[in-house]
Recover the amino acids of this structure.
């Protein structure tokens, strides 16, 4: 296995934990400072890991010196081309949320628990071990449950869904591990993991925990729990490599239904947070659709949409959170007319919202195009349904914009303009959204390479049982063969 | 420097000028740096005049050298290569100056420049001055990109920019609910049209192996190309493009968005819908006109939709009570006729009709705000009303029905609401309420503590009241 030049993954994972320890007993201001430093360090290390991986010219690599090699199973942390950009993305989401947390909301937002969450998310994204992923996913639910409890809200819905998710995931991993590579146990294990993924990704009809979460926990905590899309990561690591075609198709169909249903539901919501929750759900489902299509274009599109949605929806959520900080929960059944009181927030809201639906010139444009192209290649009807979902999402985004920022004049005696820290947070995301939109090729090329490698691994796994049988002319799909050939050529 | 190189340079500047304008205005809006009104107006003039002069320069070179096809290749913006199967994806940026695009881009620069000069005075010291020009910059960029697009992806890029800026301009007076509701309606229609366009674009990719118009419509310069797509595929793709064009150009059954769009600032934004935005669908059909000729059924559909829209617009325009709505439906009539001409294969006639109609509507819409004043002046001079009132009771039943139909604009939006929007909304509102009940059931929250006892003395009751 290749090695990075420094143990940067470990530092990225443990820096937020250290920050959480320091922030635990501190006041809001000190806790915020600790969170910024720890999260900044995590982001710096994550970016360095990505660069380091490019320097070692390998698909995947371990940390240098393997500080955690004493653990059972050896060093658990490994980075590859798929997860390399996901780590900085997650770290950036946490950092910018901390940056955009004003003093007014600092009292309601737990920096210590969020830092623990960050550490767990980064650790999840930096491992491929099924058992460790299961344990980390289970642990990641705990800080959120604690925050729900602290706010005096019922944790029943969240706990019920997460317990079911963890139980199914554990059962699935166990069945696959101990039931052998083939047979009923392996299929049952795969189906259990698929169900777990659908629950964690809040696919319909298991999506109510997401709505409940956005209703009851602080907006920042909800954003941080959902936007890293760790559910999709579980699908990528535990389903995609060896799941039978039928299971992948099933997950894709459920995700497709969820994408349209959530987009339509976003149009009839009364609360802005719920609009955001359903929009995020719709977009996350599109990622899952692309992952389960398992063709080169579809997978490349899904990986690109993953990054674009991660950036855009974080910006969208943070902008909405900034507005909420000023006027409280926003009713989108009526016009709120906040544009003139806060024009920059209005512009940023529009930009991030449009980026999420793949508007030209933003990072999501090429990503959605690739996804649609891949979906049409797989089955034209899937492409059409994906387009219906994005069209509905577009209407929902503009509806939210019009309801929140226009339609009347908001009378306020205090200044509702954007604060410098908020401006920094959302502008950084805007620069990435526009930069990625105007110069998309490096990102697309990197995701294509990762997608081809994932398909190669899947093909290798499906070809393995055939190793003892007489050689067949070609066990691989022609599209996959061409993808591998192109990768080899590069 | 050869004439080809010079043409290529001028063409590039013609595209870069609106891109620069849109970038400056949008970035300054985003970072809250306000340019002065004077700077905004000067920059607008500079970019529009530069774009116009360079586009005109390309035309002169084309006429001088006899070339009818100047191409600006910007290469692949994004590409996913598949070495063996050639089943790759690429987003190709290519601009073409030909007999179709040059008149349209010149028209765009002239009309948008006129509106820019007018708007900088008309909106002087308006709160939304900078917002208007930011959207104006996006609109211009979108129109120029769509007009000069050499690939379907480039056209879609411009198409989307025009859609967004148009919708936002409809809702320019955003402190009132009516313009915002209209903007939302226009945007919803546009999204529907965009989805149809994107499906058609992907289908064209699959059929022709790329989005280049010259690959799909034959190598001959417009209008002499011949599409190399089989009739069945041409019919499917053509119907999708016709749907997209109907949404964008306000053809049936989407015609009612055109008068709604007149809620924008008078008369500048109205000119976009009366003169430019409303013609973009017809322009799309002109661009893919070789495809239309691949299927007779498709041609029949185009002519039928065009004529039906023309008749509808002509009838409804006669009963409208305000000048801008009447002009909007007159636009629908003319766009319908242009569409029918395209369906009949009369491409040059359609192009001339389009350019002439856009100029006429610009003039009419610019004059619209002062028309009432002119009428009063004439009536004062004559000492009486200009037109006699018609007694509705004297009309035959059919004419009375027609009058009511026209006054209600055929209730097109009401029918769309009744058949599509309301069932959709009520279905998902029911789902929302069901989810809410299910969520409450799952939560099993402890019931709130009973409220404090209500005072019973008359004085206390009065205080409570």
């Amino acid at each position: 296995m290749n090695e990075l030049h420094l143990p940067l993954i470990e530092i990225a994972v443990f820096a937020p934990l250290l920050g959480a320890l320091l922030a635990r007993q501190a006041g809001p201001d000190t806790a915020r400072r600790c969170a910024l430093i720890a999260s900044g360090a995590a982001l710096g290390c994550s970016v360095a890991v990505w660069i380091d991986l490019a320097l070692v010219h390998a698909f995947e690599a371990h940390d240098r010196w393997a500080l955690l090699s004493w653990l059972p199973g050896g060093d658990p942390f490994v980075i590859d081309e798929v997860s390399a950009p996901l780590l900085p993305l997650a770290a950036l989401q946490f950092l910018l949320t901390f940056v955009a947390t004003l003093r007014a909301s600092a009292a309601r937002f737990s920096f210590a628990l969020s830092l623990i969450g960050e550490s767990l998310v980064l650790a999840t994204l930096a491992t491929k071990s099924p058992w460790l992923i299961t344990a980390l996913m289970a642990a990641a639910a705990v800080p959120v449950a604690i925050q729900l409890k602290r706010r005096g809200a019922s944790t029943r819905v969240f706990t019920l869904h997460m317990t079911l998710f963890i139980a199914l995931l554990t059962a699935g991993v166990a069945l696959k591990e101990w039931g052998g590579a083939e047979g009923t146990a392996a299929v049952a294990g795969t189906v259990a993991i698929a169900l777990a993924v659908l629950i964690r990704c809040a696919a319909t009809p298991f999506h109510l925990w997401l709505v409940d979460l956005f209703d009851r926990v602080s907006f920042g905590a909800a954003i941080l729990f959902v936007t890293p899309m760790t559910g999709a990561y579980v699908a990528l690591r535990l389903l995609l490599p060896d799941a039978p075609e039928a299971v992948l198709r099933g997950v894709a169909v459920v995700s497709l239904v969820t994408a349209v249903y959530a987009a339509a539901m976003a149009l009839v919501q009364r609360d802005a947070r719920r609009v955001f929750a359903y929009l995020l759900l719709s977009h996350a489902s599109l990622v899952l659709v692309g992952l389960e299509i398992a063709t080169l274009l579809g997978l490349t599109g899904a990986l690109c949409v993953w990054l674009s949605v991660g950036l855009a929806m974080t910006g969208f959520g943070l902008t909405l959170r900034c507005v909420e900080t000023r006027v409280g929960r926003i009713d989108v059944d009526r016009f709120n007319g906040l544009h003139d009181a806060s024009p920059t927030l209005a512009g940023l809201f529009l930009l991030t919202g449009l980026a999420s639906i793949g508007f030209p010139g933003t990072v999501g444009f090429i990503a959605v195009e690739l996804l649609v192209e891949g979906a049409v290649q797989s089955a034209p009807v899937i492409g059409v349904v994906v387009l219906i979902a994005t069209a509905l999402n577009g209407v929902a985004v503009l509806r939210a914009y019009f309801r929140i920022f226009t339609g009347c004049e908001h009378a306020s005696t205090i200044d509702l303009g954007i604060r410098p820290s908020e401006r920094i947070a959302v502008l950084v995301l805007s620069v990435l959204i526009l930069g990625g939109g105007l110069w998309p090729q490096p990102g697309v090329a990197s995701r294509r390479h990762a997608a081809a490698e994932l398909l190669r691994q899947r093909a290798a796994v499906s070809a393995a049982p055939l190793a003892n049988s007489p050689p067949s002319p070609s066990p691989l799909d022609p599209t996959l063969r061409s993808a591998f050939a192109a990768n080899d050529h590069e | 420097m050869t004439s080809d190189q010079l043409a290529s340079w001028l063409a590039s500047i013609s595209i870069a000028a609106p891109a620069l304008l849109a970038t400056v205005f949008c970035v300054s809006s985003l970072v809250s740096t306000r340019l002065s009104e004077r700077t905004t107006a000067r920059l607008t003039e500079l970019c529009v005049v530069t774009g116009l002069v360079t586009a005109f320069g390309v035309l002169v070179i084309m006429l001088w050298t006899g070339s009818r096809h100047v191409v600006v290749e910007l290469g692949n913006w994004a590409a996913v290569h598949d070495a063996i199967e050639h089943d790759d994806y690429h987003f190709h940026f290519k601009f073409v100056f030909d007999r179709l695009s040059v008149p349209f881009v010149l028209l765009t620069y002239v009309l948008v420049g006129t509106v820019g000069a007018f708007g900088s005075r008309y909106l002087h010291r308006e709160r939304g001055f900078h917002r208007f020009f930011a959207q104006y910059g996006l609109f211009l960029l979108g129109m120029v990109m769509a007009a000069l697009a050499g690939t379907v992806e480039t056209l879609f890029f411009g198409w989307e920019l025009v859609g967004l800026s148009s919708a936002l301009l409809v809702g320019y007076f955003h402190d009132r609910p009516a313009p915002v509701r209209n903007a939302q309606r226009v945007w919803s229609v546009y999204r529907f049209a965009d989805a149809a366009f994107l499906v058609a674009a992907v289908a064209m990719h699959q059929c022709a192996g790329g989005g280049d118009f010259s690959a799909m419509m034959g190598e001959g310069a417009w209008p002499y190309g011949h599409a190399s797509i089989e009739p069945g595929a041409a019919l499917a793709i053509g119907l999708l493009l016709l749907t997209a064009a109907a949404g964008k150009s306000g053809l049936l059954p989407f015609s009612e968005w055109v008068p709604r769009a007149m809620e924008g600032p008078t008369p500048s934004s109205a000119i976009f819908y009366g003169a430019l935005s409303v013609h973009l669908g017809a322009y799309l059909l002109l661009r893919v006109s070789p495809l239309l000729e691949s299927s007779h059924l498709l041609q029949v559909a185009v002519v039928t939709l065009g004529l039906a829209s023309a008749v509808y617009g002509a009838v409804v325009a006669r009963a409208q009570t305000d000048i801008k709505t009447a002009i909007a439906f007159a636009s629908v009539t003319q766009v319908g006729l242009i569409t029918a001409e395209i369906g009949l294969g009369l491409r040059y006639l359609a192009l001339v009709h389009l350019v002439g109609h856009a100029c006429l509507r610009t003039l009419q819409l610019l004059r619209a705000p002062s028309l009432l004043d002119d009428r009063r002046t004439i009536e004062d001079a004559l000492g009486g009303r200009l037109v006699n009132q018609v007694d509705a009771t004297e009309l035959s039943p059919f004419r009375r029905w027609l009058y009511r139909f026209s006054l209600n604009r055929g209730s097109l939006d009401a029918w769309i609401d009744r058949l599509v929007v309301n069932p959709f909304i009520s279905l998902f509102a029911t789902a929302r309420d069901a989810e809410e009940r299910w969520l409450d059931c799952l939560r099993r929250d402890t019931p709130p503590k009973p409220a404090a006892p209500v005072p019973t003395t008359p004085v206390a009751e009065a205080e409570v009241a």
Observations:
- Residues 453-465 of chain B have pLDDT under 50 and may be disordered.
- Residues 3-372 of chain B form one domain.
- The beta strands of chain B are 70-80, 89-97.
